[in-house]
Amino acid sequence: SHIVTSLKNNERLTNLDIAIKNTSDSVWDQISQLLCDKTSIAATYASNHTLLKFGESENEPFEVETYLTMNEHPSKLSVARIKVINSHFAYNFRLEPFRGMKPALLAGVLEF
Fold first, then answer.
1. pLDDT tens digits for 52-73?
2. Quick check: 38 and 87 in contact, CB under 8 A?
3. CA–centroid distance for 83 within its chain
4. φ, ψ for residue 14 (rounded to 5)?
5. Residue 45 half-sphere exposure, CB side, CA atoms within 13 Å?
6. Are 5 and 28 in contact, with CB atoms under 8 Å apart?
7. CA nearest 94: which of 22, 40, 58?
8. CB-CB contact of 82 with 70 (8 Å)
9. Cβ–Cβ contacts within 10 Å for residue 74, how many?
10. Each residue of 29-40: b (16+ CB within 10 Å) or e?
11. Which H or E run contains 61?
12. Percentage of the chain surpassing pLDDT 90?
């Protein structure tokens, strides 16, 4: 979706008021990834933490609704931290994201 792609680096737009009808699962997956890209810690950290509302839809997935609610927190740094912790350190914690990480970056991540 072009709208999702254009919102990737958005830091100002908080509400997108559009009517969403018959949205496919793949579009919702794109929106979810926009709000919390789980492909890496850096990608999650760089996800959109600004958007609060993505149109009007009756079938908005719980995950998208959760991310939009998280974005309501005034500290975007805190939102990023929560998304990183929930996506990479909760439940099935894996060490793979740390393999090959530069020591200075690893120290920053651990301090985070």
1. 998 777 788 999 999 999 999 9
2. yes
3. 7
4. -105, -30
5. 8
6. no
7. 40
8. yes
9. 6
10. ebbbbbbbbeee
11. none
12. 38
